[in-house]
Design a protein that fits this description.
This protein is of the alpha+beta class and 229 residues long. 22% of the residues lie in helices and 31% in strands. The chain contains six helices and eleven strands. The strands form two sheets. Strands 1, 2, 3, 6, 7, 10 and 11 form a seven-stranded antiparallel sheet that branches. A four-stranded antiparallel sheet has the order 4-5-9-8.
């Protein structure tokens, strides 16, 4: 299923030309985003929290599964099962600096996913979901680690939501200014932005050990992220 099917809740009303109906664009944004923001109504008021997540395009939920995790004491995750959730991811690719404040903008890619939360209580799915969360940050990392302990699984809540109801929006390109502002001779341009990696800081107790290939691969991927023109 490659085509997004936005509902009334995910249908874009402004700048529809920036929308994408390709589910592969949704998965690409999720894959590149290090964190998402989870929106949930808790105790009668809206709460939005940043969190790490994992994605299984072939998961058991409609359209695939997005996994959220946290402590069993997390209020947002306690409120999530059975509730309507909203998860957003945004990647900022550039600052679009126009000749007027009105036309300033950003080049970006964003995704919004809406759907019901489902408590993951199956042990095998829970372990797989937590591995996906680890691998989302550093692909291949979970295979190098010890298995989750029973105590850790009991102390962790995992909530899944379907990837079916989603929207994707993006802006690319340069400044869009009125001709009068261009004629006034004011400077304008785009400042490209990208997430990159610095030098690895080896833990003192791992001093002298070779850095794992999964970590080196993650750093190489971040350093090699192309900047928007």
């Amino acid at each position: 299923m490659h085509v997004l099917s936005p509902t009334d809740r995910t249908q874009l009303h402004r700048h529809r030309d920036r929308a994408s109906a390709d589910r592969r664009d949704l998965l690409a944004i999720l894959a590149e985003s290090l964190i998402c923001h989870l929106g949930v109504v808790m105790d009668g008021f809206p709460l939005v929290v940043p969190t790490v997540f994992g994605v299984d395009p072939d998961g058991p939920d409609r359209g695939g599964s997005l996994y959220l995790h946290g402590s069993v004491a997390s209020g947002s995750l306690r409120a999530a099962p059975g509730a309507e959730l909203c998860v957003t991811c945004t990647l900022v690719d550039g600052l679009v600096l126009a000749r007027s404040g009105f036309h300033h903008s950003m080049n970006y890619r964003s995704a919004v996913v809406i759907g019901p939360g489902r408590l993951v209580d199956d042990t095998d799915e829970k372990q797989r979901a937590l591995d996906l969360v680890v691998d989302h940050v550093v692909p291949g990392r979970s295979a190098t680690l010890r298995a989750h302990t029973r105590k850790e699984l009991v102390a962790t809540t995992v909530v899944a939501m379907p990837l079916y109801e989603a929207s994707v929006k993006q802006r690319v390109g340069g400044v869009v200014d009125d001709q009068d502002d261009i004629d006034a001779g004011v400077w304008a341009g785009v400042v490209p932005l990208a997430t990159t990696a610095g030098a690895i800081e080896v833990d003192v107790d791992a001093d002298g050990m070779p850095t794992p290939a999964d970590v080196l691969g993650r750093v190489a991927r971040l350093v090699g992220v192309p900047r928007q023109p």
